[in-house]
Amino acid sequence: MKAIDLSGKVALVTGASQGLGSATTRALHAAGATVVINFFPDPDKVNEARAQVLAAELGERCLFVGADVRDPGAVDRMFEAVRASLGGIDIVVNNAAVLRDRTIRNMTDEDWQAVIDTNLTGVFHMNRAAARHLRDDGRIVSMASIAATVGFFGQANYAAAKAGVAAMTRVLSRELARRRITVNAVAPGVVLTEMGKSIPEGVRESMLAQIPLGRFGEPDEIANVILFLCSPLASYMTGQTLHVNGGWTS
Predict the structure, then answer these.
(1) CA distances from 48 to 52, 89, 116 (A)
(2) How many domains are contained in the chain?
(3) Does residue 208 lie in a domain region?
(4) pTM exceeds 0.90
């Protein structure tokens, strides 16, 4: 089997300043890609500081850009800036996401819309820009979730958004196939990122009991699957959602 070599490729990862985003950015960079670290420009500049730390860690072949994926104009400006600076884009990883868990009875319109705006509409904004800007033979990988399959208590907004991402992936894979751009999704189980660790301990214990491998996932294990989908090794795979959850569900 050939080693994965992404030398000469430019990869843009949203929500790349922490969690699965930073793990994915590191994996793509280690394979030789030039990486664009996208972060949400929060007022306190916490995400920007994290992006700067990651960029300093990686050293060469990286760029960090603040852009809110909920804002189509900001997304378009980010793609244009990356093209102007790096010459083009080959890989897009849609990772940015938020949680606003509540039962449907208690979920506010704001709780619903905040998750849909980032986790689904934000992916649409990114995919539309990628369809316009990505070079031929490119790759798009979006983060779905086991939540869309299992339907976790209190996650109607999150599960609906992630199910939408999987459906959008299937559609876009057909639309971009003539340019040999593959479009896939990864649906992780519970992963020990900051988001995963925010799940209450009692809930995590009940989840753990349902995982055949008997443990939660690590960020690098998800990042390696994304790396595979971004590589030439996955050139005949498109329109798929890969479940990476320790055997919890398929």
Answers:
(1) 6, 22, 23
(2) 1
(3) no
(4) yes
List, for residues 35-44, the tens digit of each pLDDT value.
999 999 999 9
Phi, psi of 43 (to 5 degrees): -60, -35
CB 18 within 8 A of CB 48: no
Give pLDDT tens digits for 60-109: 999 999 999 999 999 999 999 999 999 999 999 999 999 999 999 999 99
Domain region containing 85 = 10-189+219-243
Cα–Cα dist 208/38, whole Å: 32
Which residues are 143's β-sheet partners? 186
Residue 5 lies in a domain: no
Catalytic residue numbers, as ranges = 158
pLDDT level of residue 2 (50, 70, 90 thresholds): low
Give the integer Cα–Cα distance in Å for 82 and 89. Answer: 7
Over residues 203-214, the mean pLDDT reads 88
Name the token pair of 23.
């793990």
Q: 204 lies in a domain?
A: no
- Can you give the CATH number for the domain in which 238 is found? 3.40.50.720
Q: What are phi and psi of 13, to 5 degrees?
A: -120, 125
User: How far is residue 102's CA from residue 112's CA, in Å, rounded to a whole number?
Assistant: 9
CB atoms closer than 10 angstroms to residue 240: 17
